[in-house]
Amino acid sequence: MNMRNRGMLAPLRRRTAWILTGLLLLLPVAVAAQYVQTPQQQVAGVPLHEPVIVEEYGYRLDPPSGWLLTDAEGMRLLSFASPDGSAVVQTMVHEDREFADPAEMLEGIVGPLQAELLDTAGFVYAGREALLADMRFMAGSREVRGYALLLNDPLYPLTALAYVREDGYETYHDFLVSFLDSLSLDGSGDGLPGPMSQFVVPFQPGRRGLSEDSVAVVLELLDTEQEVMIDPHQADAAQVVIDREARLLTAYAGDRAPRELQEIAWERYFRMVWRDNYARLTPVADAWRRAAEESGLERDELPAAVLSWLQDYDYDRPGGVSDFLNPLETIYLEQGDCDSLVLLYAAVLDQLGFDTIMMVSTVHMHALAGVDVPGSGARFPFAGREWLVAELTAPVGLGMIAQDMADPADWMGFVFQRMY
What we know:
alpha+beta
């Protein structure tokens, strides 16, 4: 166990307190929406249970589970709605149009909608000028409130409008933010934090994107020491996404949604968390590459070596709405629960070229990883492959699992998408 980083914990916490407070004010706690529909609540449309990829214009969306595609005008204009029709998200590609900046794009919305602008702010997302506007307007006879996200892409400028009737704003706020945060452009955004996350805390890969509050952490990997930088603002931004997505899950809990939809909601939860953290963990994967090269470790030995490294972390459940510590803080504190450790393990291995899955059991209240590598031991059949099990919270080898947890029927599998 590497103890040299422990002394920096207090100053790190002091530095990050202000930003966490600001983020929580920005993202209010949602009241759980009901996902069991009555006939009066039905909205015409196609239920969505996986990401929507618009190849013609090069963007991708991952709507909340069970939301509906209600209109598609040649894929240029897409409309989505919550199951009860209260919340709406629309995306529009401005084909054959050029704008000086996102503010000019916003003018084309505010006028026709006669919208009241409550606040606006510009930022950069995936190298594009962007703008986020908080606004209120009339949709038919209903007063609604929500956000306009404007991305001034040089080929296909895109506007996303997310809104809900005023009396449902607190209930659906997290859903609107999550929907907008799922947007990615031309594949370049798939492994980066989403636009809403980058609006709050800008992200730029590499050391040039680190804040002045970043701290150096020494990782003892194999027989080497590797330094990585941990940015507390990025850690806090990651935690906000984890907690926001956990709040969304409460809408599907218990008798609020059928079992099948609950599993789909869990899958989206891990997709959102995976994407948000993937690029943040690239320096850790790079550290493992250096360590393997310096120590002469063979590539096929990496899954077991990374597993052993994380098994040395302290097991700790952070509590809170998600009970899931973000992976940057997991590294900094050298502690985490099964979810945190599995996500970190899978993200590092994925960037080292190994296919991984996450295995979650509501029966055992536990999470494991699965790796597609040769070897003996317990395997989990999923998505046409047999995955070698990796237990992160006990000092056991690949393929080892407690006998009372060995029934594959007790587990749900989630495939992690290769980002780049």
